[in-house]
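Entry 0007
Protein: RNA-binding protein
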Amino acid sequence: MIHDLKTWPEHFRDVRAGIKTAELRLNDRNYQPGDVLVLREYDPEAGEYTGEVETRAVTHVLTGEQWLQPGVVMLSMSYGNTSKQFLEYVVNAFRIPAELLER
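Output (structure tokens):
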């Protein structure tokens, strides 16, 4: 599963730099290991996306009210192998004909 997520600039920069390897999120998407996170930088002051994007693979999902608030998960993420799933996402999102990608 691919999840397109709004990410504020200070968090986006740390993900891009490799400093931030975990993400706290509401578990409103049933996150699972192997999912792909498409992290899109969002500027809350301008109220728009900046156009910067990073992709990461979910490697672990921490759940449980013993550690987190109800409904919240901590997603561990890495560069992982996101290329195939992300390519499928781009093809579907932008309706790119598959034959253009076979070159």
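Curator remark: The beta strands are 2-7, 22-26, 36-43, 48-62, 72-78. The domain at 2-101 is CATH 2.30.130.30 (Archaeosine Trna-guanine Transglycosylase; Chain: A, domain 4).
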